[in-house]
Amino acid sequence: MVGEHKTLCQDCWEEACFITAPFCKSCGLPFEYDVPDGALCLNCARLRPPFVAARAVFPYDDLSRDLILAFKHGDRCDLAPTFAGWMVRSAQDLLEKSDLITPVPLHWRRLSKRRYNQAALLAYEMANITGLPYHPQLLKRTRHTPSQGTLSKTARQKNLQGAIKVTEEIKGQTILLVDDVLTTGATILACTQQLLRAGAKEVRVITIARVIQT
């Protein structure tokens, strides 16, 4: 676990699996073999996602799950600066020419229950590190939706229809969108689509972890 010096303990360092190249240019899926620069995974080659690129620090495995659950549900807000530092390192190519940083939003009901938006904490710390403008209210959840945890990708997409809106003028801007985990991509997709409809030039995505489909 992350200790007082804002790094992993020795046992966790030995277990940690950071995502490094080679990976899909679009969604950041790590490849198990060497590929040419700019290669796409099969899913992105078939259908490119609307965001320009997504990156993650870790695959969603036992270690990253425990870290994220402690952060998300265990009141370990002190982990945010450490995660943000790792995310900045993983998102170096996305940070270049990004105009602002914004988190995936929580509906006020979920926010009142959880007491903080973990994505907002990450985005805030990344803004502090990089100096990019932080826009915590750019995206708003307009409708309370059931938890996404047990839903399929199709059900998640349906669940989010009409649930997110853009609250600011962003025409021509490049947005760095921050969340904790990229699972099916439904939430990121819904946010990206709304940002592009509002006139964003590009959307880029960074998360702590991403699910690796097997």
Characterize the structure shown.
With 214 residues, this protein is of the alpha/beta class. 36% of the residues lie in helices and 16% in strands. The strands form 2 sheets. Strands 1-6-5-2 form a 4-stranded parallel beta sheet. The protein has a two-stranded antiparallel ribbon with strand order 3-4. Helix 9 (186-197) links the parallel strand 5 (174-182) and strand 6. Helix 4 (80-90) crosses helix 7 and helix 8 packs across helix 9. It starts with 9 loop residues before the first helix and ends with a strand.
Mean pLDDT: 89
Low-confidence stretches: none
Structural class: alpha/beta
Biggest β-sheet description? 4 strands, parallel
Report the order of strands and helices. HHEHHHEHHEHEEHE
Shape call: globular
- Lateral strand order in the biggest sheet: 1-6-5-2
- Strand fraction equals 15-25%
User: What proportion of the residues is helical, as a percent range?
Assistant: 25-40%
Number of helices: 9
